[in-house]
Description:
With 804 residues, this protein is mostly helical. Among the domains are: 7-182, 3-Layer(aba) Sandwich (Rossmann fold), CATH 3.40.50; 395-505, Tetratricopeptide repeat domain (Serine Threonine Protein Phosphatase 5, Tetratricopeptide repeat, Alpha Horseshoe).
Amino acid sequence: MTLVGRKTEMAQILDIVEGRTSGPRLLLLLGEAGTGKTSLVTAAAEHARDDNTLVLMSQAGEAASQQSFASLHRLLLPLLPDVGMLAEHLRRALETALGIAAAEGQPDPMLLHMAALTLLTGVSRRQRVLLVVDDVQHFDRDSLDVLRFVMRRVAMEDVSVLLAARGQTPPEGVAADVPTLLLGPLAEQAAAELVDAQPYPPVGRARIDVLEQAQGNPLAIIELCRAVRTGGARALPGDGLSQTQRIQEMYVARLRALPQVTRRLILYAAASECEDLATIMAAAGVGRDLSVWAPAEGAGLVSVVAGRVVFRHPLVRAGCYQGAPAFVRQRVHRDLAGVLVSDPAGRAWHLAAACLGRDEVVAAALEDSAEFVLRRGGYFAAARALERAAECSPVGEDGARRYAKALRAVNNVGDPSWARELYEKITALTEDRDLLALAARGGGLSLSLSGHQRQGFQVLMSVLEPDPPSDRAIVIALAAVLKGIAFQSGLPEFRRPIAALLDEPETGSHDTLSSEPAMAESLTAVRAMSLAGTDPRTAPELLRRVRRPNVPEPHAGFAEMTRLLAFAGIAWYADESDLAVESLRQAYALFAAYGSMGTAVLSFAPMASALIDTGRWAEADRHLEEAATWAAVYKLRHIEIDIEALRITLAAIRGQRVGMPADTTWTAVDLEENRATHTRLLRAAGAAAAAAGDFDGAFRHLRQCFGEDGAPLHYFLSHRVIADLAVAAHRTGRREEAARVVAAVRAALGSRPTARMTLLLHHADALTGGADGAEHHFRLATVNPAGEQWPLARALARLHYGQW
């Protein structure tokens, strides 16, 4: 059984099961409901059985907790045939406790304890034994007394003991010093993997809602995915969660046991978005007496802390909300809207939740609230509000316009599947060219991030041909996405239209709906970045012409964030790696303050490569980890592969022996239309082979970055592996073949390559050219002070010069 996101925990458990610990083979798993305790102990039991271990397993239940020795009977049931081998006094004590023999007089607890211990130790002498007790907090007290006596003693024999209990501290009856393993929420990346592992995983906004509401709880993820499957995209709390039986089974008894006024409060809290305690109580009309919350707190459903109501488990809120009839939930939302007079955003959202059809008043209120939220950088909340506003719009064109606004916000969130959903909704509602252009920008970007470059290109060209939009800002925004597709694809035909689109000066109207980078300097930077990405040979001159951004204010607007990203892109294409890193750091800090990375996700791989090239490897590790999480959560498919390739590359150049990129990474996207990813994979495979001493393999992989005639697989990235190719060629006697590639790269870059490429080419020429020119090229590869910016490349050039 493979458990997503629990590899470390599973390894620790198996150490106990297989006796790889120096102390007692005893472990208690703790965690809230749904964290995966049962799945882990079940997986451990399956592993033990496969290893010819006798597994004695008992899952205690509340119903049996009052029945004396019921749990012990279930645990020892497979050993009943062995009970007859015990000494008479021990056999009778155990049979009496288990109800097999009639009781004779007052039982002796010590005899029972010794009988269970003798039985287990005897069995363990002929076969390893694993005791597994799930939900030990429900073990009846008599059984628990026996278990407590036995488990420390047998854990020193060939017997492992694995317990699991709900909560964060050992339950009553289990010693506080028992070794424990606390299961927390899944990491974001693992949670996203679990969502995608479901039979029918949600997509778009519903997927992000599930991740947000489940808070990393595995059972919550599974149940909320099931709820979305049965109830559609609006099947989550706040939108009317469709009922799932398991949620009800977990919490209905505790909910029904609460007083009516407490149940009423719980429902209002479950229906709220982020309202404070006073607002919830005012809407529910129950006064200000906080004691009414006590039953719910005592039942472990909520905590009231610092004026807020916190649900103790993600599924509690869902269970509370879905247990109420639809008309009651509608009334609750209206009541909450009625008291939120000073919070237009919250009021609009509750009105929408109570709205059953189309209502322009509600739609307008949601749109207004979204504008307010956007000013605070709440792109996700704004996108949700705008999408709901579009759904409530009676007029199709209004709906299309609001969907377009939602799509712009979603692009700033960075979720391609949600963006694609909105794109399809816009195109179904309108033929307005400006709105279709906005939709194409979001739709093309989402397709590109999903690895579908040809489809993304077609979507963009559908609104650029035969005539581009009249709004120049829209054209620049479309060209920027087109450049991203052209770079990722590496296909020359995708680059051809860009220069013509950007040929005219960037003047014209700058409608705030059609272009987020509304300021002229941002548009200038974005235009220059698109031109640099289309023909990197122009990047140094474009970088000189674009004014360098000042150090941004902590709450700089989106236009400044966009300008920083664009400037960093130009610097990266110009091989000014230090400048690219500095600018991206500043941009990331601003995006982080807004809680999303938006289009900055496109810079994750360039930032990682710049950090690696400039020797900032510890920072590269942190960046790669964060980027991998973003890519997994938002299903940025080709970025996921890029990041994995760069991780392997970094490990390899550190001298670590790492495996080649996994087979699945070579097939997850069509590499023919994702040549940037293909090139990164080839470089990673080459680096891994070189780190293992396999220079034939390294040459074979790196050589694929170029065609037979030396033409690059990718017009920018391939050139930057030329020195690595030369090293592998030098080590394997293929210098003449590599020299032809070096000559082709030099010709492609023209008479004025960047400083970095000049150094790399001199290094490559020194290794693959004739002996007469080697010293000349080595000297040129090592003396230029600019090379100190790339310490590894400089060090390797000096090493090879010294070896020569």
